Structure to design on (325 residues):
């Protein structure tokens, strides 16, 4: 069966769809999937063995360039690519108007979230088949439930969750040798950040345990914070700006991760990395990074007493002390 998945953004949302695809491939003989995804996240589906073709989109960039011929040429090429194959099922797992419009371009029966489950209810008009997936569930569970209903098999237990990724090639950043921990301090929403002074204390305690600390960044504000955190922190390395494929390789080769509520934490879970997630405002039950049952633990901390720097460092020490090197 040929399946087309429409799951374009964001990084965390794309990662959250992976267990649904892994489960579908186990239940549907010969299933092969194509995946429409925003160009910035296109590396992720390509690491899943059930994905045959990644179809990058650039809706935001195309909207900005509507007065330019190049944008129209790219949109026409995108339409040709998405219509090049007849699908047994076109599954919009995003539930947005933009994803519904892309779904309408594809050839094959269309399915998606039911009204009340989709984030934008008008998107439901694009689907011939609509399935409920309560919004209070974790996104991973919602994707698994939607996909199981659309393809006609029973969703497995939470303990059966499998991301199914083949780890990307390790990326070795200049100056980063030996064991290291990736510190994911940046997030798109400032209210989800961990206080900088608390980062400084927690990282000092973690660095004293031995591993180096790798500090990535995605914009000027995050770079400045990374540079401040690295000051007087033994073994800290401020990384160059990395693409998603390089970040995946960096995380894949790391001892583990510590970070806030960001898509890269979910990627670390998919790559079976141990870690500590810091959730000052978002509830981990709905937004936390989830490890596979037999993978090293990924612990999400959210209560004020858990988020104190000393407690964070103790959680880190307890998590990593028993793991093989």
């Amino acid at each position: 069966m040929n399946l087309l998945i429409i799951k374009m953004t964001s990084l965390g949302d794309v990662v959250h769809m992976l267990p649904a695809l892994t489960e579908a491939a186990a239940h549907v003989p010969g299933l092969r999937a194509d995946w429409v995804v925003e160009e910035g996240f296109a590396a992720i589906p390509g690491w899943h063995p059930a994905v045959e073709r990644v179809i990058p989109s650039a809706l935001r960039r195309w909207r900005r360039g509507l007065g330019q011929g190049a944008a129209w040429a790219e949109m026409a090429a995108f339409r040709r690519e998405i219509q090049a194959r007849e699908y047994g099922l076109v599954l919009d797992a995003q539930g947005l108007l933009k994803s519904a419009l892309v779904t309408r371009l594809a050839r094959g029966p269309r399915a998606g979230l039911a009204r009340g489950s989709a984030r934008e209810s008008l998107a439901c008009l694009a689907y011939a088949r609509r399935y409920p997936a309560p919004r209070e569930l974790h996104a991973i569970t919602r994707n698994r439930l939607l996909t199981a209903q659309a393809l006609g098999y029973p969703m497995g237990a939470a303990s059966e969750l499998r991301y199914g990724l083949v780890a990307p090639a390790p990326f070795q950043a200049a100056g980063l040798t030996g064991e290291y921990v990736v510190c994911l301090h940046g997030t798109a929403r400032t209210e989800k950040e961990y206080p900088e002074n608390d980062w400084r204390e927690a990282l000092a305690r973690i660095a004293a345990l031995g591993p180096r600390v790798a500090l990535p960044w995605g914009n000027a504000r995050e770079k400045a914070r990374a540079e401040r955190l690295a000051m007087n922190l033994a073994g800290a390395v401020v990384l160059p700006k990395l693409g998603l494929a390089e970040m995946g390789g960096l995380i894949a080769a790391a001892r583990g991760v510590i970070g806030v509520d960001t898509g890269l934490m979910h990627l670390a879970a998919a790559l079976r990395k141990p870690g500590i997630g810091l959730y000052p405002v978002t509830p981990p039950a709905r937004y936390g990074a989830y490890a596979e049952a037999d993978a090293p633990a990924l612990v999400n901390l959210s209560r004020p007493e858990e988020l104190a720097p000393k407690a964070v460092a103790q959680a880190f020490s307890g998590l990593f002390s028993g793991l093989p090197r």
